[in-house]
Amino acid sequence: MANTRKLIQGNKACTMGAIKAGARFCASYPITPASEIGEYLSEDLPKVGGKFIQMEDEIASMGAVIGASVMGVKAITATSGAGFDLKQENIAYAAMTEIPVVIVDVQRSGPSTGGATVCAQGDLMQVKYGRSGDCPMIVLYPNSVKEIYKTTIRAFNLAEKYMSPVILLMDETIGHMRENIDLSEYENVEIINRKLPDVPPEEYKPYEPDAEGIVHLMPFGNKEGYRYVIQGMHHGADGMPNLSPATLQCSLDRINGKLDRHKEDIWEWEAVDLDDADIVVVAVGCVSRSATEAVHAMRKQGIKAGLFRPITLWPFPDEPLMKATEHAKAVIVPEMNMGQLVHKVKEYTRDCTQVIPLNVYDGTVIMPEQIEKVIKEVSEK
Amino acid sequence: MSVHDYIKESAFPLFTCPGCTDGVVLNAFLRAYEKLGYDRSNTVLCCAIGCAGRTPTLLDFNVLRVTHGRAIAFATGVKLAKPDTKVIVFMGDGDSLAIGGNHFIHACRRNLDITAITFRNEIYGMTGGQYAPTTPAGGIATTSPYGMIEPSFDGCKLAIGSGATYVARGDVYNVNNLEKVIKGAMEHKGFSFVEVLTTCPTQFGRRNKMADPVKMINRIKDMTVPIEKAKTMSEDELAGKFPTGVFLDKEGIDLNTRYEELLARVQEQA
């Protein structure tokens, strides 16, 4: 059998997944540690007839990818924390107008310029709560090069299926990490494309959701004569500005409700040794790799430790977490920030369960030994 | 096809104030569009925020109305994604020359094949009359109660300096010229820009002793002079005047043409 394994960088795997998912447009602006995504796509998109453009700023690159998606072309942009700040207004626009796009945030240390080449997990909350209004968001956070490939495809699929922007969250460590991986199993992976209207132009209401709560937006430039307005003011079924109380409520319910309603389809998580675990570690991204190793080491010593790893960070997998920690006496939350994920974990664990934060924000990746130390301390109590 | 067929009557009554001349620009655009016989199925109108940014939503076209100042950025994605699309961008003073200034100059530099129209009413109307980068010296606005002290932008000079290949100015008094320059802009291959002098009696006029809409239009008449005539006038005579007509109409390879060449080159190698 031919050797199909390749040594691939995390950021490269993201671009390969994007092209596999059908992305044919990328607009971005250079920022470490996400720049390779634009670089690779500038080289690889033209080979498949796609286009890359380096825009004048982060705001413009976010606008351009939405513009391309409005024309029916799957589009992606990539940035890091400080650039993500700038993209937020247009990300909210995509959420409000229900335009599918994928935004990659390869996290680095912040706030502000912070540390360009330094790993951190400071954006766990801003990817969900950084925008004005009640703005829904799907956020996926893989932890290996292979999973980055797979999750990028899933990000596009969810974007098209639920007509929503999707954020692919990464961190400097997994973005720059190289792993020897085999992607041949994904050759025939399912690719989802947005649904088109099933009514003629004269009956078409662009923002009238179907039975599943999903709108069918006909790409602009269509030859069939579907003409409508896409705009970020509150709007009813016809898409036109409307600030009546009923329309406002309906518009917020529509964009938020569709994700809530389909959360079980959107949720993805990994469970490691959870079945009989009385100490549960909850971790994401690069930290979850150390956590996996720590759990395995503890098991060898007879300590019943397990890991709950959200791959879908938002909508937060609350019910799966509650189930995973039901019998736990303690939950440990290691994260590379001053405490973000821990708040959601506290919200969805029983009051009698001890929730222990482990925060490292000096730029060094949390090592398995640091997590093992906390697990041991808890188990000895 | 009548011009009326392009208007979405369900969107009326107009949101604009009495005496507003934004509709005059829309009218000139529709007449030019109809004369050119373009097909709405491959036309996208882009716009953003403010009075000028809202006007295209009254039209029965595919309209992409986006965040403040970003219409040209979104239009760049639209045009690159589907190169055969006719893209016309409608903007106000802020959209094009303040918050969106960066996108404006870079689209000029790229010679992106779209038409950008700026409604220059010298004020931020929708937000209540704050000064714009186009407010004239001494002009009273809610944020310049003692008179405007900043110099103003000349959109046409900015476009020419940034690399646009068609640059013109029109106004709401001389509507024949306005229709002509918008038509010329849409026919042009490459980045075309039309700065249109418009009036805002409610927010600019009332604060500057011109509450009467007719007075404001007469001011436009006095302020403008055809380019040909301007060439014969001295610097003193031209002070405070706005030449109208076509400043620049030159050939230049547009971004999409360059991209198609790139794609052909890459795919030949593959």
Work out the radius of gyration of chain A.
21 Å
What structural category do the secondary elements of chain A indicate? alpha/beta
- What percent of residues of chain A are in strands? 15-25%
User: CATH superfamily name of the largest domain in chain A?
Assistant: Thiamin diphosphate (ThDP)-binding fold, Pyr/PP domains
Mean pLDDT, all residues of chain B: 96
Head-to-tail CA distance between termini of chain B: 47 Å
Class from helix and strand fractions of chain B: alpha/beta
Helix content of chain A: 25-40%
Number of domains of chain B: 1
Mean pLDDT figure of chain A: 97
CATH architectural name of chain B = 3-Layer(aba) Sandwich
Q: What is the name of the CATH class of the largest domain in chain A?
A: Alpha Beta
Features:
heterodimer; A: 381 residues; alpha/beta; Rossmann fold; seven-stranded mixed β-sheet; 15 strands; globular; B: 270 residues; eight-stranded mixed β-sheet; two-stranded antiparallel ribbon; 12 helices; 10 strands; 39% helix; 2-oxoacid:Fd_oxidoreductase (chain B); 2-oxoacid:ferredoxin oxidoreductase subunit beta (chain B); TPP_enzyme_TPP-bd (chain B); THDP-binding (chain B)
Written account of the structure:
The complex is a heterodimer of chains A (381) and B (270). Chain A is α/β, with parallel strands linked by helices and 381 residues long. In chain A, helix 1 crosses helix 2 (35-44), helix 3 (58-70) packs parallel to helix 4 (81-97) and helix 10 crosses helix 13. In chain A, the strands form three sheets. Chain A has a seven-stranded mixed sheet, with helices on both faces. Chain A has a five-stranded mixed sheet with strand order 10-12-11-14-15, with helices on both faces. Chain A has a two-stranded antiparallel ribbon with strand order 1-8. Chain A is built from 13 helices and 15 strands. Chain A is globular. Chain B is an alpha/beta fold and 270 residues long. Chain B has helices spanning 22-36, 51-54, 71-81, 93-97, 101-110, 155-162, 175-187, 201-205, 213-223, 227-230, 235-238, 255-269; strands at 43-47, 62-65, 86-92, 115-120, 123-124, 130-131, 166-171, 192-197, 224-226, 242-249. In chain B, helix 7 (175-187) links the parallel strand 7 and strand 8 (192-197). In chain B, helix 1 (22-36) packs across helix 7 (175-187) and helix 5 crosses helix 6 (155-162). Chain A binds chain B through residues 24-25, 27, 46-47, 49, 51, 53, 55-57, 59-73, 75, 89-90, 93, 220-232, 238, 240-241, and chain B through 10-11, 40-42, 44, 46, 54, 57, 60-67, 70, 73-82, 84-85, 102-103, 106, 259, 262-263, 266-267, 270. Chain A: It comes from Megasphaera hominis. Chain A: Residues 17-213 form the Pyruvate flavodoxin/ferredoxin oxidoreductase pyrimidine binding domain. Chain A: This is 2-oxoacid:acceptor oxidoreductase subunit alpha. Chain A: Residues 277-371 form the Pyruvate:ferredoxin oxidoreductase core domain.
